[in-house]
Amino acid sequence: MGGYILRRLLLMIPTLIGIMAISFIVVQFAPGGPVEQVIAELTGQGNNTTERISGGNDLQGAAFNDDFNSQYRGAQGLDPDFIKSLEKQFGFDKPPLERFLNMLWDYARFDFGESFFRNISVIDLIAEKLPVSISLGVWILLLSYGISIPLGIRKAVSDGSRFDVWTSGVIIIAYAVPGFLFGILLIVLFAGGSFFDWFPLRGLTSENWASLSWPERIIDYFWHLALPLVSLALAAFATTTLLTKNSFIDEIRKQYVTTARAKGLGERQVLYGHVFRNAMLIIIAGFPGAFITAFFSGSLLIETIFSLDGLGRLGFDSVVKRDYPVVFATLYIFSLMGLVIGLVSDLIYTWVDPRIDFERRDV
Known about the structure:
This protein is mostly helical.
């Protein structure tokens, strides 16, 4: 197993380099980069992003030259020296390959630099947004797995019964309804939209959270999370339930289950002593993807609808504003976490079913 783990760890290096290289080519050379963002602000076409650039001093002293034809869209009339100073500040005065290699070297040392348009380091910015994503990710995983697995087992045991039929109908409907659409419906019904005003619509906590007692803080925290979690739970709940049911049905129909029953074992012993271990393999296989989705990529619309400032909105805003340090740093961190979690998932495979031996397989 040690050799397998070492090979997987070594393969992470070219995988990360490939991910970053493709993203660098696609994102960095797309039109509308940070230099053009500043130019758009100067010409009144952008949002307020230039306050961060050089403390505003270079912008105030920039001269205009109507005869200058710049390579940047909308830069006609700006001083060429000013354009060059912007390129140097953003690092675009260096060749693309040098910029990419410097980025890889910095990221290998977990040095992610500062945001282009915010006076804060990328790590501090991610840490600032992390509580929202952790709150959504942890609780949605606990809800989806804590409810879906027992429900899926019950549906598999009672396959074809009335309970199985009507729960399948509910699950299919829940899966078909987009989470963000259901979130809007919840706002209309329960967050002061048109009917009841029972739940808050902004943030993770109330303004007076610091003055509350610990029991009151816990209640306030879940009070704010109730509607976003219900909205996010629909798709994850449906997928995990049906996956669990089908996995258990496949195992229940196998010969070893018939043999176990013939030996006089009870249904509970057969189900949890024999079937459970094998049926859960496919659930474990899907955990890394569910983890990454729940934490980092599945909550952008929900965060926007419920005014939650998490990693989903951070990533989207960074791409829109061409804040490359934030874009590439979050991509690097999330990709690394995904690779590590994939390895951990394989190790859990061997723990759940000792018959699996990755040492005998090619990576």
